[in-house]
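Page 47, continued from p. 46.
Same chain as before, 274 aa.
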Amino acid sequence: MSLRLPWSRNPLKINDITSSLKKVWGTQESEARCKLATAYRLTHFFGWDDLIYGHLTLKVPGTQHILINPFGLHYNEVTASSLVKIDLAGNVIDKGTSNFSFQRTGYVIHSAIHESRSDLNALMHIHSRAGVGVACSVDKMVPMCQHSVFIEPVSYHPFRGIVTQESEKIELAENFLAPSKCLLMKNHGLLTGGATIEEAFSRMYNFHTVCQAYVDAGYTHRPVPPEKILSEDIIEMSVKAAASMDGEHFGMMDFAALARQLDSAGYETGYPHP
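Result:
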């Protein structure tokens, strides 16, 4: 899937942080806000959004605070300054520039993982059509295409209804353990994590692509034939090869390239291009 940007005479710019706000938030938080808002906009343009639902979060560097979308804004309306800053107990630290607060469901899901996985500074949770299709029909995903290399091992969490109770945080944490960075939420959707928002986004791209391959190949209603499943040796070799190419900067070049497309179209991401 490629990024297709609609033409707009006056695109809503992503980096709307004024000089006075930058003095309050500082350079690191301001940069984090621009990156996360860019990820929201890209999620929309890739067609993974679900009206105003789903969530992307990013820890503010050097803190236990997370940035999350204002619940009520469409992903195409999210800007750097509108993001809400909360702590892991769900207290609003900074409401941002919008008139909306955050959704409790997003807080419960994301805080559970941010608390239990110190290696995951960024999380993405979406309800893409292919992702929901697989979440509703596949018990356990198997590696069947090259994109599978970038999502293994996949973890699983059962559906307990719309997530609003903090009691579910324990089970969520138990079902999403390291080294897994991709979680299939049964009957619900997809979740990925990364050390950076760039990594979380890249893993989501691959996760969604594998789900789309399942749908396209008809494997949501029949098992993947054994001869089509990639061997453990091939997966291990490919994972090592991918790591040698990207290393700790997984997804950085992909995300930067997409941010440049947004910048060229006038969205002014504020992304720190080298």
